User: What shape does this take?
Amino acid sequence: MKEINFKSLLITTIIGLTIWFIPVPDGVQPNAWHLLAIFIATIVGIISKAASMGTMAIIGMTLCATTQVLAPGDPKASIVNALSGFGNSTIWLIGLAFFIARGFIKTGLGTRIAYNFIKIFGKSPLGLAYGLNTADLILAPAIPSNTARAGGVIFPIMKSIAVNMGSIPEKPETHRKIGAFLTLSSYNANMITSVMFLTATASNPMAQKFAADQGIVITWGSWAIAAAVPGLICFLLVPIFLYKVFPPELKETKEAPAIAAKQLLEMGSISSKEWLMVATFIILLVLWIFGNLFSIDATTGALIGLCILLLSRVLTWDDVKSEKGAWDTIVWFSSLVMMGSYLNSLGFVGWFGNLVGNELSGLSWQLAFPLIIIVYSYCHYMFASATAQVAAMYSVFLAVGIAVGVPGTMLAIFLGACATLMGSITHYAHGPAPIFFGSTYVDLKDWWKQGFFMSVLFLLVWFLIGGVWWKVIGLW
Assistant: This one.
C-alpha cells in the first residue's frame, strides 16, 4: 500500500463527486459532464500523487466502464469504448520507441556517442555543455522517454565529469565550480531536444492525437520542421545564457577530453550490435521522415525497427517484456487519451472552447494567441509532468485558440512544445528534473530563479524567431 496516499485519494474523490453532482450546464450532454468529473479526478489524483499514474489511469478507465458514461445503457459498448485507447496507433508508437531506446542503452551506443562529443568539444565548460547537449540532440528522435535519455545516458556522464573536475556533491562549496552549470545546461537542453522531434518525449504524440481530434494533422516531419529553427536557437543559446547569468568558476576543462578518451578506451571498439543499432536508427529516421512516400506511418516504421532489433538479437523478447516504462506508459496513456478523445467527441471541448472564445471574441487572434500561450505555459507550476498538463488542458486551450481564429497547426505545435519547455521552471516540472536536482549541485532557490529566466528566454525565442519561421513555412 506504499504507493497509495489515502489523504490525497480522499480529496481526489471529493473533487470528482462534487463535479459529478454539479447541475449540468446548458449545451452539455450529461454523460459528457460526468466524464469530465472522472477525467478531472484522475488528473488531480495523478498531480497529487494519490496513487501511481498507472493506478489512477486504471481507476479512471474502470469508472468510465461501470458508470457507462461512454455508452449509456449499453454495458458491452461501454467497456469496449473504455478500452479503445489501447487501439490507438500513437500510443503504440510511444511504447515501441521505448523498446527501441533500450537498444541504445543495452548496446552502450548512447554512452559512446556522448563520450565522443565530450572528447571533441570538452576543453572548456561551454564546449563540455555543448558536447553533452549534442549527444542528447542526436539521441532524442529515437528515445521517446527524455527521463530515460537523461537518467540513463546524459546524467551519469555529466556527474562523472563534474566530480572529476572538482565539483563534489557532498561539498557545497565546490558546486559552482562546474557541477551547477552543467546540471542546468544539461537539464534545459533536454527540455529543448524533447520538443524538437515528435518521438522525443511522450507528451508530443499525445498533443498530436488531441490535435487530430480537432481536425489538425501533424506528421513527424511537419513537427520537426516547425520546431527546427526555434529549437536550434534555444539549443545554442542555453549554455551561453547560463554562462553569463550562472557562470562556472572553472573556465577551462582540459582534463575532460582525456577522461572521455579513457572511458572510450575501456569500452573498446564499436561492436557489431552497436553497428546494427546505428543501421536501425538510420532506417527508422528514413521511415519516419519519408514514410508517407511508401504508405508507411510512424507506428509501422517503429514496428519494422523493433523487428530488426529482435531478429538481429540486439534485443531479446525478455528485454521487451522487462521494459516497464513502456508498458506503464501504454496503460496510463491509453486511459487519458481515451477520456480526452471522448470529451471531444461528446462535445464538451467544443462547448468550452466556444464559451471561452466568446469571451475573447473582441480580441484579434494576434492578441489572443500570446495570452493563450502564456497562461497555458505558466499553469505548468501546477504540474509534475508535461503529459499530465497536455491531458488536462491541451484540448481546451487548442479549442479556445481555434475559436478566436488562431491558425490551428501553429497553435497545436506551440502548445505541445510549451508543456515540455516549461519543465524548466521547477525541480518537479518534468521527469528528468528530480534526477538532475537530486545531484544537489543546484539549490532550490537557484533552480526556480534560473528556471523562470529560462522560461522567458524560451517563450521569447518561440514567439519571435519561431513566429517568423512559421510565417516562412506557411503556418500562418
Notes: The mean pLDDT is 87. The longest helix spans residues 444-472.
